[in-house]
Design brief:
heterodimer, A: alpha/beta, Rossmann fold, Dimethylsulfoxide Reductase, domain 2, Barwin-like endoglucanases, 3 domains, eight-stranded mixed sheet, 30 strands, B: mainly alpha, TorD-like, 9 helices, globular, binds iron/sulfur cluster
Chain lengths: 756, 192
């Protein structure tokens, strides 16, 4: 590779110029762009890498600790931190592309203004001008409405670095605004686990090695949590059996001992059938259900009256013999565990299905056991200060009357009683909520760490909703469909260009994220953007924004840390994280190891009065799924080469994954006159997607699969055919119910004459 | 100092100003100055408001963003194995700039941004006037024109032309191409 030092070595003229004192001869001419630089005499040292600590902040189970190698102020390569036994020195294929993300020529470089939304007529503007325009609009809204509820924020998981909660802080520092709350990801399961256990708290994933029987239920870690796979393999080497239950024959399923292709949305019936067999075969852990749980007798009665293994088999499509055999093996293996995936709860009956699985695991006596557990996720290590997030509204701010409601599972601000609060709209019905918002209408939307046009549901409706907005500001790194629908785009830093700190919702490691390089072009971090906005606001109307007008990223990272965090991770200061990530000191690798549950009864609740009060059944009863209104069920799970719309646009990923497909079973394709590679229309009552078909026995005959992704060169968006139908649970803990992402139905037909 | 060299220096400065322009007004001013300096191919020679708007939108579409760029004005995208910023070619330019006692205005701006390269060329030609710096400057110019700019500008120009620039932008691309061709004559630097 041709490098700097090669040029220096090969080109005597560089030394010649230095020797001749060229630097002294040149003055800066008229209009000069370059600035003086003291002549460099020191020879270049190619071994002089600087190493920085970073963390992958995407919405990924693994939240990898990264070591970043910088030379000449340029990131040369990244690797997984070896100090974390979870990251174990390696990243996934996405993580290794990071340098290509930082240095992609496609990055958004400057603040830009679009003259005519969607016109493609972009003007470059300075940060000052961008902030002036935004501040003017905010003040105009405040004057017009007498409050700032016309200003909305939609933000989710594009960057989970803790200081990025400064975006929420920025909104609070302006006044009471409109927030899109909830999560499209995992809310039904969170509520389910809260009903059963009192919190969502999973075992340390590193203790999967201790398990003797592992069910991976509706998760695909081979793609979405590849660092967890080594524990599955290690467990199997120690004799564990691995069963994968999934509607799709995934790469994880391919590695398992046994695979059950469950009928989507019937996992609850399957779990209840397994629970019934525990009962029938006398395999219930009497000690647990009698001493650590409440409501067991009612649940057992429910099972006896309403559930049979045969019924479960018929409903789920899994043979009764297989159900019986696996249940017996699961009960005999001590410990045994279920990994409950997020896909499984993205159904109209998703929460009830998670409750049924929890109940099965609880009956088997595997709750609170190392190597056991009903694993879903946790937020035990997220006890930061949320200094960036918690900002005060300016004096005299007016909002919605009454105390604030919850703002999502990552809302750590606490619900202090206030006279006014923000207006909350359901993030999972973003389009409808924008269309319906009244008094005042939603006039302006700030978008950060999120790409609504790729992730929000019913894209056609979203198009209409955005047309209603008077100003859209997006904070981005790449030109997404959302940027196309924006008036102003602001370039934001990558993780290598900012300071922050990161925890995981799966493992128990804490990672420092140091600024490794100067921001490229004119990118700024979310908190720097907030500070700039504050300056513009206060210049216009003193006191109109309480966000500090100067921020130092490193200081703000430090302000997120506290003694609780240090004690939990056994460190004396954040600086210890410079040596490598730290793992929480856990009394046990098992959650609920002391059997003290956070439910109202303090026990595991087979019967939850709280759940009943919230409009569901007290027991984890079977709930039928959404009824089809088209011949095929559509599933839109996550792809291996991206995280939602992130990564898929990078050249390395494009090489692996150049185009999307709809996967259809060969028998179904034949009936529809579709051959492998044909261009097809996947359509339903809300829209259509044109895409090539790939015939695959990995999907059931009545299902089709399209992976959720964003291709910069293709007009492909699964949200054209995914509506905003709600999942059952989620409102209690996250502010809004989840979405039935996998309860979608479509038809499919050859397009453009099929072959294209 | 040859008249041609004087003229090419002026062209390099005007092209620098054009490709570094951030606003419509800067773009229009640089365009009109180029048209006045080398009228051939520039029609009209002064842009009206709608021409200037069209130029700005097209300029941003091709060279600035926020959409993916058909022709990023950075050397490394064309010269390096990986079409990325801050690659070996960028660092070549950084080394050259540093040897001239110069640097890109801030750390996040790649050193091989076209306007900086044009300014570096301009600075090197000034060093031809001085006997002590002349030999090294001549070698550096040869490298810059023949191995660096001379290799990436043709591809850049081809991509930019293919992206359907409006006439006022095409005229600037032609001016850049003409400057590139002229900059390759070794005699230009021998006779200085
Ligand atoms: S995407 Fe996930 S597995 Fe890949 S580097 Fe990031 S955190 Fe690690």
């Amino acid at each position: 590779m041709k490098t700097h030092e090669h040029l220096a070595g090969r080109r005597g003229f560089l030394k010649g110029l230095l020797a001749a004192g060229a630097a002294g001869v040149l003055g800066s001419g008229p209009g000069s762009l370059l600035r003086p630089h003291p002549a460099e005499a020191a020879p270049f040292d190619p071994s002089a890498y600087e190493v920085f600590r970073n963390a992958c902040p995407r919405n990924c189970y693994d939240t990898c600790s990264i070591k970043t190698y910088v030379r000449d102020g340029v990131v040369q390569f990244v690797e997984g931190a070896p100090e974390s036994t979870f990251t174990n020195g390696g990243l996934c294929v996405k993580g290794y592309t990071y340098p290509r993300r930082i240095y992609s020529p496609d990055r958004i470089k400057y603040p830009m203004l679009q003259e005519g939304r969607g016109s493609g007529n972009w003007r470059r503007i300075s940060w000052d001008e961008a902030m002036s325009r935004i501040a003017d609009k905010i003040l105009e809204i405040k004057k017009r409405d007498g409050n700032l509820l016309g200003l909305g924020l939609t933000k989710y998981s594009g960057n989970f670095g803790i200081t990025n909660y400064g975006v929420e802080g920025m909104m609070s520092s302006l006044g009471y605004t409109t927030r899109f709350v909830g999560t499209p990801c995992w809310p039904a399961g969170i509520d389910a686990q809260n009903y059963d256990l009192g919190d969502m708290w999973c075992n340390d994933p590193e203790d999967l090695v201790k398990a003797r029987y592992i069910i991976v239920w509706g998760a695909n870690p081979a793609w979405c949590s590849m660092h967890s796979m080594k524990y599955l393999y290690a467990a199997r080497e120690r004799g564990a059996r691995i069963l994968v239950i999934d509607p799709i024959f995934t790469q994880t399923a391919a590695k398992a001992d046994e695979f059950w292709q469950v009928r989507p949305g019937t996992d609850g019936a399957l779990a209840l059938g397994m629970a019934r067999h525990l009962l029938d075969a006398g395999l219930v852990d009497r000690d647990f259900v009698q001493n650590a749980a409440v409501g067991y007798e009612d649940f057992a009665a429910y099972l006896k009256t309403n559930v049979t293994v045969e019924w479960a088999a018929k409903t789920s499509g899994i043979p009764a013999d297989a159900i019986r055999a696996a249940t017996e093996e699961f009960a005999a293996a001590k410990p045994a565990t279920v990994w409950i995936g997020y896909g499984m709860q993205r159904h109209t009956n998703g929460g009830s299905m998670v409750r049924a699985i929890d109940a099965f695991v609880a009956m088997s006596g595997n709750i609170g056991v190392e190597g056991g557990g009903a694993r879903y996720g946790h937020l035990q290590t997220w006890g930061f200060n949320y200094h960036a997030m918690i900002q005060k509204q300016p004096a005299g701010s007016v909002g919605v009357r009454g105390a604030s409601g919850p703002k999502g599972e990552f809302d750590f601000a606490g619900g202090e009683a206030a006279t006014y609060s923000d207006r909350t709209l359901n993030i999972n019905k973003t389009a409808q909520e924008i269309l319906d918002a009244r008094d005042p209408e939603l006039r302006m939307l700030w978008i950060a760490c999120k790409n609504p046009f790729a992730q929000d549901f019913d894209r056609n409706k979203l198009e209409k909703a955005f047309a209603k907005l008077e100003m859209v500001v997006s904070v981005e790194q790449f030109f997404t469909e959302t940027v196309r629908h924006s008036d102003i785009v602001l370039p934001v830093t990558t993780l290598f260009e900012e300071w922050t700190i990161n925890a995981s919702y799966w493992h128990y490691w804490l990672s420092l994220n140091e600024q490794a390089i100067k921001p490229m072009h004119e990118a700024k971090s979310n908190i720097e953007i907030a500070a700039l906005l504050s300056r513009a606001m206060n210049a216009r109307e003193p006191g109109s924004c309480t966000f500090p007008q100067e921020v130092d990223g490193k200081e703000w990272m430090i302000k997120e840390c506290n003694k609780g965090i240090y004690d939990l991770f056994g460190i004396s200061s954040w600086e210890e994280l410079r040596k490598g990530p730290a793992k929480a000191r856990l009394a046990s690798s098992a959650s609920w190891h002391d059997r003290t549950f956070k439910t109202p009864s303090g026990k595991y609740e087979f019967s939850s009065a709280l759940c009943a009060r919230n409009g569901f059944t007290a027991l984890p009863e079977y709930v039928e799924g959404r009824r089809p209104d088209a011949p095929f069920r559509l599933m839109t799970p996550h792809i291996q080469f991206g995280l939602h719309s992130q990564f898929v646009n990078l050249d390395w990923m494009e090489a692996y994954y150049p185009e999307p497909f709809v996967y259809i079973h060969p028998a179904s394709a034949r009936k529809k006159g579709i051959a492998d590679g044909d261009m097809v229309r996947v359509f339903n009552r809300i829209g259509e997607v044109r895409v090539r078909a790939r015939l695959s026995g990995n999907v059931a005959e009545d299902c089709v699969v399209m992976y959720e992704a964003w291709f910069r060169k293709l007009n492909y968006n699964v949200q054209n055919v995914v509506d905003d139908c709600a999942a059952d649970m989620g409102a209690m803990k996250t502010g809004a119910p989840g979405v039935a992402i996998h309860d979608q139905f479509v038809d499919i037909a050859p397009a453009d004459g099929g072959r294209a | 100092m040859s008249e041609q060299m004087m003229s090419l220096r002026r062209t390099a400065q005007l092209l620098r100003d054009f490709f570094a322009a951030a606003t419509r007004e800067e773009m229009r001013a640089a365009h009109d100055a180029l048209a006045a300096h080398m009228p051939e191919g520039f029609s009209p020679s002064r842009l009206d408001d709608s021409d200037a708007a069209r130029l700005e939108y097209a300029f941003n579409r091709l060279f600035v963003g926020p959409e993916a760029l058909p022709a990023p004005p950075y050397a490394s995208i064309y010269l390096d194995d990986d079409p990325l910023h801050m690659g070996p070619s960028t660092l070549d330019m950084r080394a050259l700039l540093h040897s001239l006692g110069l640097a890109a205005p801030h750390g996040g701006q790649p050193d091989d941004f076209l306007p900086y390269e044009l300014e570096a060329w301009h600075a090197l030609t000034l060093l031809l006037d001085d006997e002590t710096t002349r030999p090294a400057a001549r070698d550096a110019l040869q490298w810059l024109c023949e191995e660096h700019l001379g290799r990436w500008l043709p591809v850049f120009l081809q991509r930019a032309r293919r992206a359907g620039p409006p006439p006022e932008l095409l005229a600037v691309l032609d001016a850049l191409d003409a400057w590139r061709a002229a900059s390759l004559q070794r005699s230009l630097y021998e006779n200085a």
